[in-house]
Write a structure and sequence with these properties.
Elements lengths: L1 E5 L10 H5 L6 E9 L5 E4 L4 E4 L10 E7 L1 H10 L7 E12 L15 E8 L33
Antiparallel strand pairs: 1-5, 2-5, 2-6, 3-4, 6-7
Length: about 160
């Protein structure tokens, strides 16, 4: 099982979370909440108001999200869902664990709050240059006060 950090529409309560819970896509289990160790620009961009983590470490904010344990089938599904490597690139980041609900593995135990965990994350290095000048967010909610409503895939 691999750890994946999600910060946008795949989080609980967000429009695409259902794909994380669909066993036809593989297995994913919520493990806890975390925060990127380094700041990154999290912007809401494009005609469909999609949250995007720009691969510009050191700029923006430390970004809040959720940590999932996923199997290889789910990881492959997420690569396709996120149009990896064309739109997003799957990289590894250090994530600070804020809360942990996951079951400890026999060999590693559970990471306690305040510890770090290496997770896959889908960020992008391929974006229009003007996105660097958009408002940076530290947390994403599709119904947030930003007023930029996400357009679900089925409505595009």
């Amino acid at each position: 099982m691999a750890h994946v950090f999600v910060y946008g529409t795949l989080k609980r309560g967000q429009p695409n979370h259902k794909v994380m819970m669909d066993s036809a896509n593989g297995r994913a289990s919520f493990q806890g909440r975390g925060l990127t160790m380094e700041p990154y620009p999290l912007v809401i961009a494009g005609e469909h108001n999609i949250p995007r983590l720009l691969n510009l470490p050191g700029r923006g904010h430390c970004v809040a999200g959720e940590i999932y344990a996923v199997d290889e089938q789910m990881l492959s599904f997420l690569d396709e869902f996120e149009d990896c490597p064309d739109t997003y690139q799957r990289t590894q980041l250090q994530i600070a664990v804020l809360e942990w609900e996951g079951v400890p593995s026999a060999s590693k135990g559970a990471p306690a709050a305040g510890r770090t965990l290496q997770c896959f994350v889908y960020s992008t290095s391929t974006y229009p240059p003007e996105w660097v000048h958009l408002l940076y967010h530290n947390c994403y909610d599709s119904e947030g006060t930003h007023g930029l409503r996400y357009t679900p895939r089925e409505n595009r």
